[in-house]
Design a protein that fits this description.
Blueprint (H helix, E strand, L loop, with lengths): L1 H31 L3 H29 L9 H36 L11 H32 L24
Helix pairs in contact: 1-2, 1-4, 2-3, 3-4
């Protein structure tokens, strides 16, 4: 069971690292790409990859949480499952709700966002949805970080008693 837990932890760490890297990519794209509309397209495409992978990883981790074992603390197991549902929901809402609304707004505006006046209702709605998108991603990342610590600190059943002492048990005093 420890091996499965390690693989699950690796998947979660990969997604969390990708989410942190996405923040750097988004900032760099707007700093380097000369047209903000093109930078937005790069960020939108990268965010879609992040959301789809986050949704897939969260669902895989949720399904495999039932294979963890009998000797796991049930409170922490259900807390982990709730956090994984939050990650999946954040990725799904970010991609299929907020992303869709932003896409429809871009189509409705029909020109680059920077050319729209700041007090235009469509621009205000776009900025508001963008802010929601940021908060939804941050919520998913926070849930992933907490789930990471829960999974990494999981204790499995005690080792079976045998005639040979456990050489890695440092709870005992050193005796010769």
């Amino acid at each position: 069971m420890k091996f499965i837990s390690d693989i699950r932890l690796l998947l979660l760490a990969i997604w969390l690292g990708a989410a942190v890297f996405f923040i750097a990519v988004a900032q760099s794209a707007f700093a380097v790409v000369p047209q903000r509309e093109l930078a937005g397209a790069v960020v939108n495409r990268t965010l879609a990859v992040l959301n789809y992978s986050g949704l897939a990883i969260a669902l895989i981790l949720l399904i495999t949480s039932w294979a963890i074992g009998k000797n796991v603390n049930r409170f922490w197991l259900w807390t982990e499952r709730a956090l994984l549902i939050i990650i999946a929901a954040a990725c799904a809402v970010g991609q299929f709700v907020i992303g869709l609304w932003l896409s429809m707004l871009r189509t409705q505006i029909g020109r680059p966002i920077d050319e729209v006046a700041a007090d235009d209702p469509l621009r205000i709605q776009f900025n508001s949805l963008h802010e929601y998108s940021v908060w939804v991603l941050m919520t998913g990342m926070a849930a992933a970080l907490i789930a990471f610590f829960i999974i990494s600190n999981r204790k499995f059943g005690l080792p079976a008693k045998s005639g040979t002492p456990d050489v890695y048990d440092f709870q005992k005093e050193f005796k010769i």
